[in-house]
Amino acid sequence: MIRFNNDYSEICHERILKRMSELSDTQVGGYGLDEYCDEARGIIKNLIGQDNADVHFLVGGTQANMTVIASVLRPHQCAVCASSGHINVHETGAVESTGHKVMSIPTENGKLTGDIVRNIHVAHWADFSHEHIAQPKLVYISDSTEIGTIYKKDELIDIYAACRDCGMYLFLDGARLGYALACEENDLDIKTIAENTDVFYIGGTKCGAMFGEAVVILNDDLKEDFRYIIKQKGGMLAKGWLLGIQFTELLKDGLYFELAKHADDMALKINKAVRESGYFFYSESPANQQFVIFPDSLLEKLNEKYVFEYQARVDETHSAERICTSWATKEENVDMLIADIKKS
Question: Could you tell me which of 49, 72, 8 has the C-alpha nearest to residue 220?
Answer without folding.
Answer: 72
